[in-house]
Amino acid sequence: MARITAGVCTSHVPAIGAAIDLGRTAEPYWQPVFRGYEFSKQWIARNRPDVVFLVYNDHASAFSLEMIPTFAIGCAESFAPADEGWGPRPVPTVQGHPELAWHIAQSVILDEFDLTIINRMDVDHGLTVPLSLMFGQPAAWPCRVIPFAVNVVQYPPPTGHRCYQLGKAIRRAIESFDEDLNVQVWGTGGMSHQLQGPRAGLINQPFDRAFLDRMTSDPEGLAKIPHIEYVREAGSEGIELVMWLIMRGALDADAREVYRFYHVPASNTAVGHLILENVR
Amino acid sequence: MALDKPYKDIPGTTIFDAEMSRKGYHLNQFCMSLMKAPNRARFKANERAYLDEWPMTEEQKQAVLARDYNRMIGLGGNIYFLAKIFSTDGQSFEFAASRMTGVTPQEYRQMMNSGGRSPEGNRYVDEPHERAQAPATGGQVGGGAARHG
Questions:
Q1: Counting one residue from A and one from B, how many pairs have CB atoms under 8 Å apart?
Q2: Binary contact (B143, A64; C-beta < 8 A)
Q3: In the CATH hierarchy, which fold is given to the domain comprising A3-277?
Q4: Per-residue pLDDT of chain A (280 residues; tens, 9 = 90+)
Q5: How far apart (Å, rounded) are the C-alpha atoms in residues A92 and A201?
Q6: What is the 3-state secondary structure (H, E, C) of A58-79?
Q7: Whose CA is closest to A263, among A180, A220, A205, A216?
Q8: Chain B residue nearest residue A37, CA to CA
Q9: Entry pTM
Q10: 3-state secondary structure chain B
């Protein structure tokens, strides 16, 4: 049977992708950010997943205002890097896992979480920057990836509680898949940041650090944070943190933190990163 | 019953809700068109003519021409869509944020390097001005990694 072994959360700042693509990771501004992922690269080399279920948000790349799915699962064979206005990132095409993705879609929908099924989709920095941070610059990504897009652009995004419960349903789905697969669930985006208006640049380090702590000590409590608190405390784009709760819901209640990294700033954003492992 | 909008009292922040999305639909869809290189070229060649192909309001078009991002947001623009405009201009999110906050790019980067804009004094529109002037507090700037177990 397929099993979930670990979860990863990380910010997906586009400027991080640009720094990697333009060979600027050793610059003094960027060096501390990338040093924070060195352990993670070694960890994932030792704990290679067969499949990553990657929760992210599209940034007006695949979805315009014509269609705005709240939860969308990528069931295609592959997903090309999106042209976000300056040409696609020079990263490998993402290979999907249609069989597992369709299995999850069917299982989760019958479990009363109504997903949108996507058979063709380009993936933007929200998905490819986390892959670059964890795997570096390989010629091909070393595992299959199931993209799972969450709307956090059009208000209202799904609630943290809904995301947390959905994570549990995704876990039930993955664990009922017959093939013996090592699956990781990643939650991306965040942490505190605001990209718009006169309040742009907001960073709330105490909020972020408490959030990182509570990912292991109090996930049920985290899932109760209302949207207004994210927006007021962590900035209008800090609400992306609800996506971390899908990952958290998919892991064991007593999952253990094996690594943490926090850094301010990367461009406009506080970078947060956690690796959690299921103990059993 | 009117939609509940508890976020209206947050300063300097426009939530992209149903009202803004309806208001900004064509502005945002125009931005979306700039994801294609041929459209970017046509826009750059004659911005006004390209904008006139879209059923946007005159006010929205003027805001685009002036690259007034706060005005665009007030007229229904969403920052991820507006990003297509400053990407077409070869500018970054950091640059756009400096424009929206009324400081130079250097001043903006300096603020971010010092830990960003503090939430102190920036949670409610009616917070006392003195608090808005308070220096940033909170955890240490910069970061740190921790390996456990």
A1: 189
A2: no
A3: Protocatechuate 4,5-dioxygenase; Chain B (3.40.830)
A4: 999 999 999 999 999 999 999 999 999 999 999 999 999 999 999 999 999 999 999 999 999 999 999 999 999 999 999 988 888 999 999 999 999 999 999 999 999 999 999 999 999 999 999 999 999 999 999 999 999 999 999 999 999 999 999 999 999 999 999 999 999 999 999 999 999 999 999 999 999 999 999 999 999 999 999 999 999 999 999 999 999 999 999 999 999 999 999 999 999 999 999 999 999 7
A5: 32
A6: CCCCCCCCCCCCCEEEECCCEE
A7: A205
A8: B145
A9: 0.94
A10: CCCCCHHHHCCCCCCCCHHHHHHCHHHHHHHHHCCCHHHHHHHHHCHHHHHCCCCCCHHHHHHHHCCCHHHHHHCCCCHHHHHHHHHHCCCCHHHHHHHHHCCCHHHHHHHHHCCCECCCCCCCCCCCHHHHCCCCCCCCCCCEEEECC
Task: Give the CATH number of domain B16-89.
Answer: 1.10.700.10
Q: Tell me, yes or no, if A12 is annotated catalytic.
A: no
Nearest 5°: CA angle at A216, between A126 and B112? 45
Q: Considering CB atoms only, which of A206, A256, A259 is closest to B139? A: A206
Mutate to test the interface with A, among B100, B103, B106 (most CBs of A within 10 A): B100
Identify which of A61, A203, A261 has the shortest CB distance to residue B116.
A203
Nearest chain B alpha carbon to A210: B139
- List the domain boundaries for chain B: 16-89
**ipTM entry:** 0.95
**Domain segments of chain A as ranges:** 3-277
A203 in contact with B, Cβ within 8 Å: yes
User: Is A227 tagged catalytic?
Assistant: no
Mutate to test the interface with B, among A39, A191, A196, A239 (most CBs of B within 10 A): A196
